[in-house]
């Protein structure tokens, strides 16, 4: 593990946490962030061994490059990163949508060494200040191959996931994006819409549930703009499905069809419980 | 405080927690629950000093009666409880909707000693097994007078709230119900609808956010059936407002109007942050 050089492009919550976890595991980590202030914070917090002023400088001697920037930036950066990363090194991203990223990876000259990734961890906060080397502990870390990804590159990516104590989970980009539309992207926009319904003075008459349900609304809007753009069709489909399910509840309440309401609640409860059982493992 | 007799009708999460907190504060607490098993559990857990087979037996010698059953049962029980509770004692409920309860209180022969209450605490779990005498610590506990409630009764209720370490918060039933429709009842049904959108196998591809957003869906359906019935108009209004806000986000995603999406997210984030600041105090 020692003597290995890792470059982390983007030192927010995910990039900073990966950097910290890999440094703890013995890697030498060079970081880059568009924001000089964030890069300096990551350095000051000991998440990276050093920072570069340009992505190309960070990756030039890297055995492994991690791209932890918003999805649109990943797609834009890939050709440049691929061009300056040494042969034999592996490129892994952490974007929340995998289709456009894996497509772009498949078109690179160095397509064989590029792997799509997405750690299912994090929260509404962002920035290196909240980075945590334990963030990935026991959490699934999705890995998606493009049609060109080599088995060797995938194997290196899986080892990296285990080094940061995550659980490698291989799936296709398409499957990832359709499921995440329901399990991650839909909840994000529900939280935003709920926050928009609440009046400024309502806080004093609210319990812990409202906070739980509006926490996601504080998430970084640039990151989510990119996710919505990159996973539009699957996201719209899941939003429409939600509108149907919620609309049926509105009708049940409005017509005082309390039997239908109880049935829906019992089904929802069973679904939530099985989700909890599945994700608490 | 000692030698005081409190009757708690309904020994679920809220009733059990109140019983435990008052017993800790030195009161002698008699409990009743429709379910003999729950009553026995509450007794076995030390939440009550004893249990009765009938509500009338529990309240006969009480200085204070707490009604911690679903809203419809509160309204149904009030006349019977009022008839057998000794003069000079105070009746306080904990229902999540206050309009119908406070109306029913105002029509009692003993209207002067009846106070509407709602502790803004609890979670999706129910039953005495999860009761916690610290549940109300630092949380608002809403108190609503009917047109007939005496200042003395309100004062006794406020002292009880302080004894269980809650923060008494006086408001009108109407104001309570309109605000709680947005801050509590709406989030409940959003959580149910979201749980219904998720497929059984989705759990393995989900992060902590989905769990946060579907936790409420596990709440007791009988309690929520009553809430939806008792606060129908305000709830439907808040659900319609949500449909408008969410619909605007769906349109923004579908038309790739990412500027509008970012604006909505920024507004939602500011709202969520001010809520968090207000409720974290």
Explain this structure.
- The structure is a homodimer of 281-residue chains.
- Chain A is built from 11 helices and 8 strands.
- With 281 residues, the first copy, chain A, is an alpha/beta fold.
- In chain A, strands 3-2-1-4-5-6-7-8 form an 8-stranded mixed β-sheet, sandwiched between helices.
- The longest helix of chain A is centred in the middle third of the chain and has 25 residues, at 173-197.
- The first copy, chain A, is globular, with a radius of gyration of 20 Å.
In a nutshell, what does this entry contain?
2 copies of one chain form a homodimer. The first copy, chain A, is an alpha/beta fold and 281 residues long. The first copy, chain A, has helices spanning 13-24, 36-44, 55-59, 71-84, 99-106, 151-163, 173-197, 208-214, 221-230, 232-254, 258-279, and strands at residues 5-9, 28-32, 50-51, 64-67, 90-93, 114-119, 140-145, 167-170.
Question: Which key terms come to mind for this protein?
Answer:
8 strands; homodimer; 8-stranded mixed sheet
Looking at how many chains there are and whether they match, the oligomeric state comes to homodimer
Structural class of chain A: alpha/beta
Question: How many helical stretches of chain A?
Answer: 11
Order of helices and strands of chain A: EHEHEHEHEHEEHEHHHHH
Percent in strands of chain A: 5-15%
List the helices and strands and how they pair.
Two copies of one chain form a homodimer.
Chain A: E1 5-9, H1 13-24, E2 28-32, H2 36-44, E3 50-51, H3 55-59, E4 64-67, H4 71-84, E5 90-93, H5 99-106, E6 114-119, E7 140-145, H6 151-163, E8 167-170, H7 173-197, H8 208-214, H9 221-230, H10 232-254, H11 258-279
